[in-house]
Amino acid sequence: SEAKRLVQLLRDNQLTTAERYLGILEHVPPGAAREGIRFLQKLQEGQLVDALQVGAELPINEDSPLLLLIGALVAGFEGHSDLAWHRILTWRELLGTATASAGALRFASSLGRPELAKDLIEALLHESSPGKTHLPNNPKELLILAHSAKHAELQELACDMVRRVLSIPSLPQDTLRNALGVLETVDDGVMTVSILERILQSAPDDWDTLLALATIRLHRSELPEASQSAKAVLALEPEQGEALRILGAIEVLKGNQTAALKLLERALSALPSDQETRIWQAEALLALDCPLEALSTIETAVEIGGHMFTIMLARARIDAELMSRAEE
After folding, report:
1. C-alpha pair distances (Å), 216 with each of 89, 243, 253, 271, 316
2. Which residues, in sequence order, are CB contacts of 1 under 8 Å at separation 6+?
3. Each residue of 264-309: pLDDT tens digit?
4. Cα distance between the two ends of the chain
5. How many whole angstroms from its chain centre is CA 194?
6. Least confident residue range of 109-113, 142-146, 265-269
């Protein structure tokens, strides 16, 4: 709330009030407060070089979070990563919040020092002291750190923190959905499925979640489970195109190509520009020994655009089949 008040004063261009407020808040002398406000103002205006020049003239006060943060930014910009990291750790310890810890993780990433972020996360996961939240038992703070770990390309640590979150019973839906955001692109699907199932326990008719569950189960080749989830979507939305496409894809994989084509036609009625549906159609037609029809379907998908690598692979398979026939 104090930081928000300061930012609002800067936005309102109340610089004298902001300077006085900062001096009281940070216990810094008037001159340093004035230059600190100049630094923040330049930063807010996007004048990074000018801001850093102002920051370089400021004294380092290890009791002032703002001056420490400015000193860390200046040191990092000048290439003194160890000094910058020392200052940012001191800044984090002064504030003692998960948001500050997340900021420190992002700072380590900006320094190009992911090992610093890893060390900090491992320390945080075991940190406990009077007046501070013990992070392994606090889902909100763990997820703040998990997002920052993902940003720092520390996927294993991000997943580890999500596992700790999921070990906590009775999590609210917004926490579970926040955890899904961390896992996107870094999870093999196991935790994602677990989270989606937990969401459905309290919202069984949430067809968006059912559809997400069907999609990931299909990608994991869990065909009976994917079919069950997709059918649950259709029970709520009878002509939902993505659910129909998933069921059609399942039939393709099971070898039931005629049934697959019927489902995929229904999917295209709902999603006429859906490329993925046409790719599955081409797969079914090729399996039914209809390479020319498959080629026509793929050419339509090419005209729609997107997913070009997948389309090129499908086209190559069809061309290979046609070439083989020509040689015969």
Report:
1. 39, 12, 15, 20, 26
2. none
3. 999 999 999 898 999 899 889 988 988 888 888 888 877 776 666 5
4. 77
5. 17
6. 109-113
